[in-house]
Write a structure and sequence with these properties.
- The protein is mostly helical.
- It contains three helices and no strands.
- It has a domain of 40 residues.
- Helix 2 crosses helix 3.
- It is elongated.
Length: 66
């Protein structure tokens, strides 16, 4: 892992580790392959979406939970 720090920036290494954890492959080989292929620079696999909350009659609001 220290060799990767010397070769890539800390930001890229952090992004690669985050991506490896997201795909449930947190090992040196996966992190190295992510960095080599540039996947750490791609948008997150699980990017948060700003989808609106569903408005439906049977969907309870926060007032129902105490």
């Amino acid at each position: 892992m220290l060799a990767l720090v010397r070769r890539y920036s800390v930001e890229r290494l952090e992004a690669a580790c985050t991506r490896a954890m997201a795909i449930r492959a947190p090992n040196l080989r996966s992190v190295t392959n992510i960095l080599k292929s540039g996947l750490d620079r791609q948008p997150s696999l699980f990017a948060a979406t700003d989808s609106p909350t569903i408005a439906h009659d049977n969907v309870r609001g926060s007032d129902c939970y105490h």
